[in-house]
């Protein structure tokens, strides 16, 4: 086989995870045209990330491969719940990715020289050891959530101490996580439930418990979907001490600065941008809770009532089946100043001058899109790193507010909209988010920190 470099890129095909690693792949393929890249992902996810008609336009050094998703081995019926699908996938992953790597090596005539994988794929640690190649991992969520995984045992002791031996917590016993370097701003309630509550023997629970132990031991480098400029210095210093190499290459799904808005044309298929053109500057509440999270029916109803009572212009990306939870007649009563869509071009919406606030679940990529648009946030966290992101938004960066009590109510949302859209405090938030945006424009530039770390990554995968 040829001795040229061949990188196998392994995706975790759930939630927002596939997009950052696919974008990193494309950046590396352009920067290192002499390296062969094989992208391994499930057929369903590949069909969304790299639809077959578009693959002819990929760089010539990139090939896309489908791997078994764990539902195709004939030993069980279809998954009844997304969690069950993840379980099946994780069970099949070592064999599926092993077969995919073999196929990629046969096609390329080149042995794989490096594994670049989502950090959730800890099975790649054993694969890399057997293949005697470097294992480079991409951490998609927030860096401070990685610290929670690394210090899972310390946090477990803290939780047991704070709750008299159990793991449950309450508002009167919501202590600081200052015991973890760089997490003094976080509280016990910000810890992802998946870390502390899931004590069964499922593969997901085992994955989450083991990740913080496997990455320091096995990863040649941990690449972060973030910028050093947005994270506490003690946090980054401690993470660097835990890993062989820590690289922050910037947000891989958001551009700083964002691209110019397109002129009104047929490309505005949802009509969102045209609708926004008719609104006053910084007046519109854009509402979207991502592709997975959904507020409870009572929260959806309360949010609708708050928008109506305050007559706040709004653009709400809402799944059709959830619309049944809206107050009866709301669509007709708010038609003059509100718009419901099943999907919105989020980056373009947040960069539009009319967008005044983003009501969000606080997904890490969504947070960066809001910062790129210079838009403060109202935060309704759900799971994973959402709570930690909300804490950073409200108390560290001071570019938004969390909903009172963590639950959307009519009065709480009325207050949040008033603060962000119409108060002096809201003006200060907009100023701060603009300042953070400018820092990240510099960090993302050709001489910024993200470019420097990306260059290190390029050299690593090109020479290992």
Key attributes of the depicted protein:
44% helix; Glycosyltransferase; six-stranded parallel β-sheet; 13% strand; 464 residues; 2 domains; UDP_glycos_trans_CS; Rossmann fold; seven-stranded parallel β-sheet; alpha/beta; single chain; 13 strands
Characterization of this structure:
This protein has two domains: 6-151 and 202-255 and 445-463, Glycogen Phosphorylase B (Rossmann fold); 272-441, Rossmann fold, CATH 3.40.50.2000. The protein is 44% helix and 13% strand. The protein has 18 helices and 13 strands. The chain has a seven-stranded parallel beta sheet, with helices on both faces. The chain has a six-stranded parallel beta sheet with strand order 10-9-8-11-12-13, sandwiched between helices. Helix 2 (43-49) links the parallel strand 2 (36-42) and strand 3. Helix 5 crosses helix 8, helix 5 (143-150) crosses helix 9 and helix 16 crosses helix 17.
């Amino acid at each position: 086989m040829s001795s040229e470099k061949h990188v196998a890129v392994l995706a975790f095909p759930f939630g927002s995870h596939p997009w950052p690693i696919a974008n990193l792949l494309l950046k590396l393929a352009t920067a290192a045209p002499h390296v062969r890249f094989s992208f391994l992902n499930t057929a369903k996810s590949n069909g969304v990330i790299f639809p077959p008609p578009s693959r002819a336009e990929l760089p010539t050094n990139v090939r896309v491969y489908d791997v078994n998703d764990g539902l195709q081995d004939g030993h069980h019926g279809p998954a009844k719940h997304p969690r069950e699908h993840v379980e099946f996938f994780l069970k099949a992953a070592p064999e599926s990715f092993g077969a995919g790597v073999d196929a990629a090596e046969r096609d390329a005539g080149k042995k794989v020289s490096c594994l670049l994988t989502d950090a959730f794929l800890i099975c790649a640690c054993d694969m890399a050891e057997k293949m005697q190649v470097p294992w480079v991992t991409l951490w998609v969520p927030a860096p401070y959530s990685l610290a929670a995984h690394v210090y899972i045992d310390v946090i477990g002791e803290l939780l047991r101490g704070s709750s008299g031996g159990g793991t449950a917590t309450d508002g009167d016993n919501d202590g600081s996580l200052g015991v973890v370097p760089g997490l003094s701003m976080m509280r016990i309630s910000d810890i992802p439930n998946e870390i502390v509550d899931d004590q069964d023997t499922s593969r997901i629970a085992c994955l989450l418990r083991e990740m913080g132990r496997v990455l320091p031991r096995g990863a040649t480098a941990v690449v972060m979907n973030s910028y050093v400029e947005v994270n506490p210095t003690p946090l980054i210093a401690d993470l660097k001490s835990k890993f062989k190499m820590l690289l922050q290459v910037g947000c891989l799904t958001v551009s700083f600065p964002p691209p110019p808005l397109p002129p009104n044309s047929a490309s505005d298929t949802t009509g969102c941008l045209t609708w926004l053109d008719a609104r006053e500057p910084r007046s519109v509440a854009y509402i979207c809770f991502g592709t997975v999270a959904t507020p409870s029916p009572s929260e959806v109803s309360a949010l609708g009532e708050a928008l109506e009572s305050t007559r706040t212009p709004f653009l709400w990306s809402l799944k059709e089946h959830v619309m049944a939870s809206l107050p009866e007649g709301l669509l007709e009563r708010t038609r003059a100043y509100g718009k419901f869509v099943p999907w919105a071009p989020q980056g373009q919406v947040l960069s539009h001058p009319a967008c005044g606030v983003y009501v969000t679940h606080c997904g890490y990529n969504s947070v960066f899109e809001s910062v790129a648009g210079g838009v403060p946030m109202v935060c309704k966290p759900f799971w994973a790193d959402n709570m930690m992101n909300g804490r950073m938004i409200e108390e560290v960066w001071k570019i938004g507010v969390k909903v009172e009590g963590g639950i959307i109510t009519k009065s709480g949302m009325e207050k949040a909209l008033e603060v962000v859209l119409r108060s002096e405090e809201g003006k200060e938030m907009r100023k701060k988010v603009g300042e953070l945006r400018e820092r990240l424009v510099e960090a993302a530039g050709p001489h910024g920190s993200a470019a420097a770390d990306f260059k290190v990554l390029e050299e690593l995968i090109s020479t290992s």
